[in-house]
Structure formats: C-alpha cells, structure tokens
C-alpha cells in the first residue's frame, strides 16, 4: 500500500516551515513532497542587502535539500490543480511537464509584484520580489554609476545618477536606504580612480509614496525614525506623490515635475500569486479564502496560508492577517500541525498570533524597530534586527555574519557581472523567483535552460 502523500506548493516562509514541521512529525510515516521553482528558501527580508552588495546572493538562499530531511523536493512551477482528481500539474525548470497526485495539499505560493495602470511603468520599471530582480538591480546600479563617471554628457550622467523608488513601505524604504549608501560608496571609488561624477556630486535617490508618511502600514514611530535617517543621508522623500508616466528618458511625477532617470524601482506592494485564481477556489482580493484552521471550506484536504491566503485574523476580528513573513512562518507551523491532526497526530488548532513588532533595515548601522511595542532606533535597533534575522534564518548564519563583518571593514565591490538583464526581470512577471526568457527569442534555449542568444540591450 502506498504511503499517504502531502504536497506543499511553494518553499517560502510558510511552505518551508510547514515542510520542516511535518517531516519532524511524521518521520517517514507519510511522504512529504515540496514543489518549488528553485532549490532554495529565499530569506526575503535581507534581499535589499543583496541589491546593495552587502550580502552575496547565496547567503540569503538556504538550500532545501541541505536543510530539510525527509522531504522530497520537486523542482517545478505548478500551473494547474485538479481538485476532483486530487492531482496537480507543473512545469520543471527545463520546460518539461509533470503531474503529482496528493492526499493533502498545502498551497503556500506567496505573492508577486503589484502593478498599477500607469503608462510606461510595465515597460520601464523593475520590481523587487525575487533574487533575479535583486541581482539585476545590484548590477544595474553599479553600471549606472560607472557609465556616469566615465561619460562625457553631463545631462546623461545626471540621469544615470538618479534613482527613483516608488512605494515607501518596508521594501521601498530599505531599498532606498541601502541603495543610497551603495551608490555613494561606488561614486567615491570612481572619484579616487580619477573619474569623478560631475561637480563631485553624490548620486540622487528619490523615495515616493502617495501616502502621507514613509512606512505607512507600520507604527508611526518607525516612520519618524526612517524619515529622519533617510533625509539625513540625502534621500529625497516625497510623500503624497506618485508617478504619472514612465518613459525611456525618465519619470513624470503627478506634481508635474519630470525627473530624468534610467532607474525606476517599483515597490508599491504585492498581490497574491496568480495560481490562486487558477484553482477556481473562492478568493478575496486574490487571496485564497481559508478558515481559521487554514483549511479551504468545502475541500478538507486542501490547506493554504502565507501571503497567498486570506487567513482570518483572530486578534482583529473581521480582518485578514497581514502579508508578512512573521505571520507566514507561524501559519506554516500551524498548517503542518493541522495536517498532522487530520491523520490523528495531535489536535488541530486555530491560527492566532499577536504581532511581535517589526524591524526596518536602514543600512549601515541604522535601523528602526519596535520589538514588543518598544520603539528603538540607531545602532541598538540595528543590533536587535541583525540578531533577529540570524535567529530567523534556517541556515547560512555564519556566512551572513561574516559578510556583515567584511562589509564593516572593506569597501563595496564596484563590479557588475551583468548576468541578469533587464528583459529577464519583467515587472508583470507571475514568477519573480525565476529569470525569464527574452520575448524576442527566436532560437529558444540550450539544453541547460539558458537562453541560446542574448540581446545587446541591458
Ligand atoms: C524585500 C522584502 C522584504 C521583506 N521584509 C520583511 C520583514 O522584514 N519582515 C516580515 O515579516 N516580512 C517581510 N517581507 C514579507 C515576507 O517576505 C512575505 O510576507 C513572506 O515571504 C510570505 O511568505 P510566503 O510563504 O507566503 O511566500 P514566499 O516566501 O514568497 O514563498 C512563496 C514560494 O512559493 C513559490 N511559488 C510561487 N508560485 C509557485 C508555483 N506556481 N509553483 C510552485 N512554487 C511557487 C515561490 O518561488 C516561493 O518560493 C518582505 C518582503 C520583501 C519582498
């Protein structure tokens, strides 16, 4: 008789934790299958440090095979769920299709970049939701500064040295805070090398949000700290402002100002992964509806949690839990306990969690944090934040800590490898975790899944 099979779709905060908890509970009594496009768990909160060259990309990519014992990893992206037949279909990284049957299904597919219908944005902006986008941004920033330093046209150099971040939530705020330090360091290195930027000016960073304050969704005290640190560092914070149009030459703001730039970084938020819609199950604003046990009503064998699920927030009746890693990871544990309970191992329990506070990484020795509601700023907040991340990372802790140490004593590396090109990280992607095929491709791919030819434009 075949073992019962539990399939988890998505190895992010919720899926990784669910797989780990289930493997410990079952110890081989059920088959646990984890399907994910990549072979790593991406620790998203540290991604801004990757785009700013503080951390090497593999530091925040924790090996699934290396850390999840008793879990079968299938590399693939699920593209359909047949609820009646209890099976799902997927495409593997080399384009082949496959099918998997399940007895229990846990959907933890997370979210993708949110789009707004603004002319030119889909073509000219890049999001910040996956590793390819972070690597693209790191190289793009490095290249812009190098080209500005070596260029002869002052207006073009100014445009290359201007970076516009839209969305001052925690992602946009952290990207701008780290980005400014990164570009300042690169500019100083070019200056020492003798190819200074015009008038020895430092690169310009703008952080826009339609909301009246940065970090609009967080405690106001965190907003004040972030605003103070950013403005002191030279980031232009424009609240109550948005983008009206994006073009090849720059960005038109809704107050009429035109900002010449080649860098529009889109951090306006996220929307649930489109796979939710594919299932045809009831959803609310794209999030799959579940009950407080993280079960899909009418389908007791299907569970969902994390960003992709509309989980009732029992601490704020009538609301759903926010899309944060803090909730996703705890929901991953609860969903595993409830799946185990459905086989008679323990009791099922409703999901309930009181927020423990938030940390916002402001680069250098700066951070804003409110652990257990206590507001902290400066190096103390930074120490709390780093300790929290090291504790929360399921692997690579020593590597992350050594990168932090090296960054404290060495200059950032002014090197761009240019392996992730602009066309491979389209903003409207439904899978920001993978770099994409160029739309122009006539030759397709080599056997390794890499593009056989590449365009000259980056
Ligand atoms: C830059 C950044 C910084 C952040 N900082 C913080 C922070 O400091 N604190 C905090 O609490 N939250 C933070 N968040 C939010 C947090 O990362 C998310 O809320 C959390 O990742 C959600 O967890 P999840 O498991 O639902 O989804 P994810 O962690 O996104 O995981 C989803 C997984 O599903 C996979 N997947 C998607 N579609 C498919 C498919 N069709 N088939 C198979 N697999 C699929 C993806 O590849 C991914 O591995 C941050 C987010 C970002 C982008």
TrEMBL record:
Pfam family, one: Pyr_redox_2
SUPFAM superfamilies cross-referenced by the UniProt entry: FAD/NAD(P)-binding domain
InterPro entries: FAD/NAD-bd_sf, FAD/NAD-binding_dom, NDH-2
TM helices/strands, residue ranges: none
UniProt key word DNA damage: no
Annotated spans, Disordered: 430-458
Keywords from the UniProt entry: FAD, Flavoprotein, NAD, Oxidoreductase
UniProt keyword Oxidoreductase, yes or no: yes
Residue ranges constituting the FAD/NAD(P)-binding domain according to the UniProt record: 5-332
Family designation: Belongs to the NADH dehydrogenase family.
Name of the protein in question: NAD(P)/FAD-dependent oxidoreductase
Source species of the chain: Streptomyces marispadix
């Amino acid at each position: 008789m075949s073992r019962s099979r539990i399939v988890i779709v998505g190895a992010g905060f919720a899926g990784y934790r669910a797989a780990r908890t289930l493997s410990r509970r079952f110890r081989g009594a059920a088959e646990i299958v984890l399907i994910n496009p990549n072979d790593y768990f991406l620790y998203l909160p540290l991604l801004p440090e990757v785009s700013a060259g503080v951390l090497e990309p593999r530091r925040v990519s924790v090996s699934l095979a290396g850390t999840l014992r008793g879990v079968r990893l299938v590399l693939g992206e699920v593209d359909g769920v047949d609820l009646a037949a209890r099976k799902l279909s997927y495409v593997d990284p080399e384009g082949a299709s496959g099918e998997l049957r399940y007895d229990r299904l846990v959907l933890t597919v997370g979210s993708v970049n949110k789009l707004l219908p603004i002319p030119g944005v889909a073509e000219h902006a890049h999001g910040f939701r996956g590793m390819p986008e972070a690597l693209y941004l790191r190289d793009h920033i490095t290249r812009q500064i190098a080209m500005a330093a070596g260029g002869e046209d002052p207006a073009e150099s100014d445009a290359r040295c201007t970076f516009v971040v839209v969305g001052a939530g925690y992602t946009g705020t952290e990207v701008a805070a780290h980005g400014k330090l990164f570009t300042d360091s690169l500019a100083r290195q070019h200056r020492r090398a003798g190819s200074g930027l015009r008038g020895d000016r430092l690169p310009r960073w703008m952080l826009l949000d339609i909301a009246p304050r940065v970090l609009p969704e967080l405690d106001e005290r965190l907003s004040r700290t972030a605003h103070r640190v950013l403005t002191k560092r030279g980031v232009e914070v424009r609240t109550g402002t948005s983008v009206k149009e994006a073009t090849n030459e720059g960005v038109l703001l809704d107050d009429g100002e035109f900002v010449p730039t080649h860098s529009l970084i889109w951090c306006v938020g996220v929307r649930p992964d489109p796979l939710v819609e594919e299932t045809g199950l009831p959803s609310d604003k794209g999030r799959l509806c579940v009950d407080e046990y993280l079960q899909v009503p009418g389908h007791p064998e299907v569970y969902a949690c994390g960003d992709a699920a509309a989980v009732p927030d029992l601490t704020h009746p009538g609301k759903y839990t926010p899309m944060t890693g803090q909730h996703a990871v705890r929901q991953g544990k609860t969903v595993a306990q409830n799946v185990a309970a459905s086989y008679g191992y323990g009791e099922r329990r409703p999901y309930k969690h009181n927020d423990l506070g938030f940390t916002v990484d402001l680069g250098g020795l700066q951070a804003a944090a409110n652990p257990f509601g206590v507001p902290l700023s400066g190096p103390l907040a930074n120490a709390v934040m780093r300790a929290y991340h090291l504790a929360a990372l399921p692997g690579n802790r020593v590597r992350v800590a050594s990168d932090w140490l090296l960054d404290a004593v060495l200059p950032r590396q002014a090197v761009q490898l240019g392996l992730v090109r602009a066309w491979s990280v389209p903003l409207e992607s439904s899978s920001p975790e993978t770099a994409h095929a160029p739309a122009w491709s006539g030759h397709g791919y080599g056997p390794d899944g890499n593009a056989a030819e590449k365009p000259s434009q980056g």
